[in-house]
Amino acid sequence: MSIRMEPTDITDPDYFHKVVDCQWACPAHTPVPEYIRLIAKKRYADAFMVNWESNVFPAILGRTCDRPCEPACRRTRIEEKPVAICRLKRVAADNCGDISDRLPQVPSQKNGKRIALVGAGPASLAVARDLLPLGYECTLFEKNRAAGGLMRTNIPAFRLPVAVLDEEVDRVLHMGVEARFGTEISSLKSLLGEGFDAVFIGSGAPRGRDLNLPGRASASANIHIGTDFLASVAFGHTEKIGRRVVVIGGGNTAMDCCRTALRLGGENVYITVRSPRADMKASAWEIEDAVREGIPVLDNHAPTEFLVENGRLRAVKFQPMAARYDAAGRRTLYATDDEPVIIECDDVLMAIGQDVAYDWIERDIGLDFDAGGGPVVDALTHQSTLPGVFFGGDAAWGPENIITAVAHGHKAAISIDLFCNGQPLSDRPNPLTNLVSQKMGIHEWSYDNDISAAGRVPVPLADLEVALTRLDVEVELGFDETEALKEAMRCLNCDIQTVFSDNLCIECDACLDICPVDCINFTDNDEETRLREGLRVPAVNLEQGLYVSGPLVTGRVMIKDEDVCLHCGLCAERCPTGAWDMQKFSLVEAVANTNPEPAQEPVHAV
Amino acid sequence: MTHIAKPKFRHPDLPVNRLGLTRRDYEGVVSTLCAGCGHDSISAAIIQACFELEIAAHRIAKVSGIGCSSKTTNYFANTAHGFNSVHGRMPSVATGANLANPDLIYLGVSGDGDTASIGLGQFCHAIRRRLNMVYIVENNGTYGLTKGQFSATNDKRSKNRRGVENLFEGIDLCALAIEMGAGFVARSFSGDKHQLVPLIKAAITYHGFALIDVISPCVTFNNHPTSTKSYDYVRDHNFMVDRIDFVPKRSEIKTQYEPGTSVELTLHDGSALKLYKLADDYDPADRGQSLASLDRYDRDGAVSTGLLYFDENQTDLHDLLATTDQPLNAAPQADLCPGADQLEAINAQYR
Ligand SMILES: Cc1cc2nc3c(=O)[nH]c(=O)nc-3n(C[C@H](O)[C@H](O)[C@H](O)COP(=O)(O)OP(=O)(O)OC[C@H]3O[C@@H](n4cnc5c(N)ncnc54)[C@H](O)[C@@H]3O)c2cc1C
Ligand SMILES: Cc1ncc(C[n+]2csc(CCOP(=O)(O)OP(=O)(O)O)c2C)c(N)n1
Ligand code: SF4
Ligand code: SF4
Ligand code: SF4
Ligand SMILES: [Mg+2]
């Protein structure tokens, strides 16, 4: 006897949340389709606030986010390119106007709890944003002279203008953070001695990795750690670089290094990577941006030596490599028989990763470290082994990205709030969810289901000649309104769910016949693997759920493969009995708030 | 009706046939019928059958009369030829077209009103003449388009939505067709594509007159509890006399069946039908017996479905008239119009 599938429990918020691929993939669970619909209605301020509540930095993220949502976008499963989710976020920020009156009120009467935040990167700022409206006093310690963390020191101004960064960082600081800039914490023990109720460590992963190859020491004047170089450029200490520059590394830092070098006088700038190009760590679009600026990528090049002449760096020697993959897809890089390659250069930028650095945390205070040198941190609560000390952002588990730092900040803020109120950290608030019918008339829905078949709208760019001459010319111009509205119509509204009532279905097949993408099936129930194989189009994407109904009149069940549903609503339009309905699923991630009174009104959107 | 055009996006793994087409390439415009109308399911079954048979749409001529059912030729095979004739006159148009060009696949779609009421005479003569066509009746027992009057196939025991009784016996189109000499007669249900699609494929491949009487609930006017053509009634009373598998010519018959459980029937082009008998007392090759059985099932209140009658050796109108194989549109001008001398010679024979 096979095990038949149980009817899907749609009251479990995860079921419909997973259908909203982008929101599910976003570490902060930003309600993506919701803000895209708001943009389509030109309600930019509302779209901005939906973002601000989830991710704190819409204007910054709208330019720089690593966008894990886009590869997840359902659109990539029915055509080539995802919706430009990230750049639409920028549209909301570019056009939102003054939203200061919509920010949460920060009470003048404080709750008496003092929180220390170490480092002024996005993680700490997110914690402050969440705790200040609850009456916490937040003291921020930052060794640099300004807030923003790597967003300020490492992300180049041609990708993120300083004014944009300032505005969003200040929005948080002005909520009442007590910022102590130019203050490096050199002992956690003594910080703990200052009587804070909780400490959040958001100090990032500040130590750029080095490569100790022959010649490293003698050539050190012209070999720079990429992150230090970028910071030095950001603070105006470095204004020039040699004519010929070799960048070592294939991640996003390498891309920023080479593009920065190009703007500081570099003429022959190379990216060199050990691995094949397809395995490069950098996001596809960052590689694309570098290549568009004329920078060649030399893949399968492993550096072996810095060649020095007259006490000065002359060249880098590379061993040509190749990759072999075993049956499980594991890669082995091996040296080929080809002659070594020598690339003459004036400067080398080393962009091969960063590590956390905790020489300022004493090892005898009950805060445990793991074998890799990182702190032991609880994945859910972000608490270290020392109660009251929390970690988030790159400081917790190593380098990630801004949106992950923000998501960590939210979770840590919830923990800090619970901690300060003496409640168990496992007792976490649930996200706010809702499921509401969108039916307005027989064939009318409160969302626009007539989605666009057009391809992704490219973001217009500044003239390359001008862009390459200056560090502070933003390369991307952002969508204008026409482009934005066009792109917004590509969104498939994946949060508008198809909700099925088995007791109403008369099994007329109308929904199955109309569905443009063959999602719907009426079949005998079976065990999942066999069901998936036997559907009208086999459901091979195991990441995507099957929506299984209870038994129908004929004893069969309705099975919907969520994989490529367009959320077009045609099934519901063609159903004679209303067995299908289109209902908007909204999920707003929980924020720190143990108070009975909600600190901030959720935005009610379309 | 729907508010929006059906999105052009299709499932990325949708099968492609040897013409490089997916099932969606056989669609027509979006239906304007009531949501849930059985007729739409039949269109979907026709689309599926044409896709599976790998027919190029320009080889199909869709012909129909008037009614919700007759409208549906617009909802499939967009690029096929089509003629939407006047009420009940589809057989005449089909006859003329078929005589002019025997090379096309004639796919007639009609309703029970279009066929059994106003068009009954035309229907009988098309069968009698062995027109090589598929004739699908989308049978809902009512005049759907004119808002629900009883049609001539409505069963006597069936009341209308307001409880009004039907005074007259319904016409069994399958029995009539067998009697009139149709070589392929089947009945099916719009809600059962597993049965319907192979029947449509077999009918299209069949050489001669092929009728499929598809019970197709009218959700708006004839789907109430006292109807005998409702989804619930047909599901409860469906009596399948047999099931067929359509085996196209080019594919080998791989499965081995227990002897006696299935019969293999060959079609004109070398394709085969695997027929599994489900009712012991039914033989679709025996005209007299099948007529008697159909009558008996009907009196028991059963809706008999399946391939009800099959004549392996039917000849069609062209065979009977010994017409030229060449479609008239491809015949040379000299053949079509042999000239004044020939006419004079013919006339002279009658002087
Ligand atoms: C070159 C480069 C480009 C990047 N580009 C992107 C991008 O485009 N998009 C993206 O999403 N992510 C990008 N990232 C990653 C992203 O910037 C980081 O993941 C993110 O900033 C981490 O945030 P955080 O708050 O954890 O720490 P950070 O941003 O690293 O901030 C930590 C702060 O703590 C301060 N600090 C450290 N130790 C102490 C101490 N002992 N006392 C006081 N202050 C201290 C530091 O000065 C710093 O300001 C990039 C990273 C690099 C290196
Ligand atoms: C000559 C003529 N007489 C009457 C009509 C009115 N009329 C239109 S459709 C129809 C009945 C259609 O019934 P059926 O063929 O069963 O189609 P259905 O709508 O039920 O699918 C009638 C009587 C007409 N259009 N033309
Ligand atoms: S909304 Fe309905 S008709 Fe549209 S793609 Fe999804 S299941 Fe198919
Ligand atoms: S259209 Fe409605 S009643 Fe018909 S099969 Fe689909 S869900 Fe059931
Ligand atoms: S009236 Fe009846 S037959 Fe006509 S479209 Fe509506 S349901 Fe179908
Ligand atoms: Mg009818």
Tell me what the structure shows.
- The complex is a heterodimer of chains A (606) and B (351).
- Chain A has 606 residues and is an alpha/beta fold.
- Among the domains of chain A are: 103-206 and 356-420, FAD/NAD(P)-binding domain (3-Layer(bba) Sandwich), CATH 3.50.50.60; 208-354, FAD/NAD(P)-binding domain, CATH 3.50.50.
- Helices cover 28% and strands 19% of the residues of chain A.
- In chain A, the strands form seven sheets. Chain A has a five-stranded parallel beta sheet with strand order 3-2-1-4-16, with helices on one face. Chain A has a five-stranded parallel beta sheet with strand order 6-14-7-8-9.
- With 351 residues, chain B is α/β, with parallel strands linked by helices.
- Chain B has a single domain, classed as Rossmann fold.
- Chain B is 30% helix and 19% strand.
- Chain B has twelve helices and 13 strands.
- In chain B, the strands form three sheets. An eight-stranded mixed beta sheet of chain B has the order 2-1-3-4-8-7-13-9, sandwiched between helices. In chain B, strands 10-12-11 form a three-stranded antiparallel beta sheet.
- In chain B, helix 7 links the parallel strand 7 and strand 8.
- In chain B, helix 1 (38-53) packs across helix 7 and helix 3 (90-100) packs parallel to helix 5.
- Chain B starts with 37 loop residues before the first helix and ends with a helix.
- The model of chain B has no long low-confidence stretch (mean pLDDT 93).
- Classes of the chains: A alpha/beta (606), B alpha/beta (351).
- Chain A binds chain B through residues 77-79, 443-444, 449-451, 453, 506-510, 512-514, 516-518, 537-538, 540, 553-554, 564, 566, 568, 570, 573-577, and chain B through 1-15, 24, 30, 34-38, 40-41, 43-44, 190-191, 193, 217, 219, 223, 231-232, 235.
- The complex binds flavin-adenine dinucleotide, thiamine diphosphate (TPP), iron/sulfur cluster (3 copies) and magnesium ion.
- Magnesium ion is lined by residues 67, 69, 111-113, 140, 142-144, 151 of chain B.
